[in-house]
Amino acid sequence: MQLTLLGTGCPVVSLERYGPAQLIRHDSRAVLVDCGSGVTQRLLAAGCPGRDLDAVLLTHLHSDHLVDLYQLIVSAWHQGRARPQQVYGPPGTRTYVEGLMALWRQELTQRIAHEKRPSTEALEVEVTEITPDWRLALGGLEIEAVEVDHRPVRHAFGFAFAAEGRRLVLSGDTRPCPGLEAAARGADLLLNEVFVHREMPVIEGVRSAETVENVGAYHTLSCEVGKLAARAGVGCLALTHFVPPACDRAALLAEVRQDFTGPVIVGEDLMTFDLTAGTLTYGQAHLSLPLERASA
Predict the structure, then answer these.
(1) pLDDT tens per residue across span 119-152
(2) Where do the Metallo-beta-lactamase domain residues begin and end (predicted)?
(3) Within 13 A of 62's CA, how many CA atoms are on the CB side?
(4) Residues with catalytic annotation?
(5) For 142, phi and psi rounded to 5 degrees?
(6) With 50 as the cut, is the pLDDT of residue 296 above it?
(7) pTM higher than 0.90 for the full model?
(8) Domain ranges of the chain
(9) Looking at domain 2-288, which CATH architecture does it have?
């Protein structure tokens, strides 16, 4: 089972960190979690164009997590996909997708008539709205929803993946909550979002003190994420969804390591974790990935 971080950013535009998205691959199966800005380019760079996806999972309906969904659908069609996209997301996903496709219907109708491609099945989207007890099996890959707390967002999920005796948990966007902690207990790898509060000063005309407090309140603070991983006893902690994207990586790592003694990895776009082989690759670097359970 492999996890590739396609986008480790947030709504703030960054040249280094694209919008939130992760790719999970196992055997011949490929699952995309979230469709942040630039996801189609990152998928191509990771060697898995949208044409090859078996499922698209949406953690919640915030714009930074789904802004490139239409681009994903159309680009997969251009890549020769000949089957509908399977989209799984929280309640409201069907309405969103129907509205999205209706918005682009005139453009699509013109493209279909003019381009004369062999199939239009890739332009069909089959939506399944998930609940906290949702599960999906794709070959040897087992997936389950994890209800998290991103209030005032009403429906928000993380996801747990299991294959060949290994377990991976993705937090989605959430403040620390019992549901995520329970799901992550004993996982080989926890991929968790992080909000670096000290690097979000008040800037007149950009954000107020209330802005910083409110945004931080429904995310996981950098002073909390290590404690969460330690309580859950995960084997390895990786960080993503950096707010702000250009945070001080060394300072963040030092802060989290005060609370979690296991391996901590500051994620980067196109970093790949292979839980089966126990390796981490990033560019030309290949590292052994220790997956022993940490002490809770």
Answers:
(1) 999 999 999 999 999 999 999 999 999 999 999 9
(2) 18-206
(3) 23
(4) 64
(5) -105, 130
(6) no
(7) yes
(8) 2-288
(9) 4-Layer Sandwich (3.60)
